[in-house]
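Intended use. Records like the one below are meant for learning the mapping from a protein sequence to its folded structure. Do not use them to infer anything beyond what is encoded.
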Amino acid sequence: MTKRKIFNAKRCSRCILPFSYSGIQFDQIGECNICKGWDKRWKDYDFAKKGVEFKQLFSPRTGQYDCILPYSGGKDSSYVLYFLVKRLGLKPLAINLNNHFQTEIIRENITNVVNHLGVDLITFSPNIHVWSELMRRSFEHSMIPCLPCDVGIYALAYRMALMTGTERIVFPGGKLASPKNPGRGVIMFKSLEMVSKEKDQERGTVDLSDFRITQDMVDSVKEIYFGQYFDWKEDLILKTVVTELGWKKKGEQHSRIDCIFEPIINYLYSVRMGVSKQCTRLSSMIRDGQITREEALSKDDKYKLANIPNEFEQIKKILKVNNRHLERQVINKDLLKPLWYQ
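Structure written out for the chain above:
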């Protein structure tokens, strides 16, 4: 197993984002523009008022389902599903994209939570050959190896909304997550389309019909980001899903335990930037007073991976990639940037 030396990233003096973070800038005292933007967006946010507005979005209630909820089985989407059903009395349709990389514990959590709440669930598994080829091309050529997953869940949400006549899609979002803008699915699909063409001449074209997102699809529904209407306290949410839904952690780990590819992404963050993939969320928790900077640094250091994860052996067999492709991801050389980075 190859072990790399992880450099000590120079970080924001307030949060723990590194100087290598995309678009980051610093003032004279070393505080980043991301912190300043977060304060402007969230510091005096009136969640009580926004919670009332959220309920009004569902009046009048029409159709078989009140909304579509993309459901990974993770902590965040489990909490949103719980809140919609138990706190608001809504009837969501949960949709799950089985990307062929789901972990055993997340499959168990999905079954337990859905049965506990009594909600309908639709699980979609893309064609394994199409999926693996898209993932392979993304791993070989994209800065975001998981791009097919990101696009796939949005595309599935739009398709299910249209098929069931459901007017709303609810995503988690919120102050601990990276900002999301309604309609981002279109530019995500165009990024995937760009990446998928990289090996057309050598390996043929890839059928993107299950991933296609058009502006007409986006315009036909209302995208709602739950975390823009209700406050998000990490410890309370974890406690709620564990005690109310029987949701299970993976040892002490409770973030991003849904996919065997996740450790690979965390490894890439660690060796590329000197931080874990949880760094962005931990930084938001610092700004919100949920954790101290020292606690966040300790957690980030604990999450970082210097060794190639064992899961990569499984990934290599499924995607037919090798250590050379992983090294290209590490050095981030000649990889395509997603269109929203440009």
